[in-house]
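We store sequence with structure; for instance:
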Amino acid sequence: MYRGRFAPSPTGDLHLGSAAAALVAWLSARAAGGRLVLRVEDIDTPRVVPGVEQRQADDLAWLGLDWDEGPDVGGAHGPYRQSERHARYEAALARLGAAGLVYACDCSRAEIARVASAPHAGDEGPRYPGTCRHRAPGAWRRPPALRLRVPDRDVTITDALHGPHTQNVWQTVGDFVLKRGDGAYAYQLAVVVDDLEMAITEVVRGYDLLASAPRQALLAELLGSTPPTFAHVPLVVDADGARLAKRAGGTTIREQRAAGASPDAVVGRLARTLGLATEAACPSRALLATFDRSVLRGVREVRLAPA
């Protein structure tokens, strides 16, 4: 059975760009007759805003996007909050460690940047060159992070919307962090463990995360599992081409509601933005009759349709 997920971080109210990705994830699951999981990615505790988790869930429900498993409804693969899944991440680290794939590193970001031979901008910063890869354990200058010992080989994922995507993770990113020095589990580890344990068959999310897919596929393989497939949907940008963000005024679902917009109008706007419909307003379930993801194939970004 198809199992999809929508996994927002409760760091700010849901904006139209995230809602567009949620809409495609929901349509993909419902069109396949499968199940949709709502997972709360609150692993970065200091950035979590109190009350946002419930507001995001309320906004999704207001849009007509329901889910079959989640923090509020339970399910066989819970818990559905990352903050409640630390034991699972620690168990995955232990498995990787037993295979000799984890080592400690106390390098700072500034130190890595100074010695990196090929810096790459992104969520991991510059490429990590393996400074501590062969270092014997000793006195640490600061609490060390735990890194994955990445093999030097190509990893290829085939995205449903963008085709094959190949990356040599070692050459592009290097040995990436699994657990930070402050004890927080890294997003890359948490999301892979969660997707595997929740039996997710396809990950539908924004195009900006395509670069993370090879890392996650590799990590799933090193954990002895088969990674889910991927479908990276276009990012939504404003009229000037700037990416929508939670901090941008007037673009959150909550602000749309406060301004008097109806859920059908917002769903219609999202569907027109993605090229999935032409109507000014329509309920989410009405889109299922004509849903065709192929219109998104090869599209990296779309401009937000006028209200």
The longest strand covers residues 154-159. Residues 148 and 199 are 23 Å apart (CA to CA). Residues 116-122 have pLDDT under 50 and may be disordered.
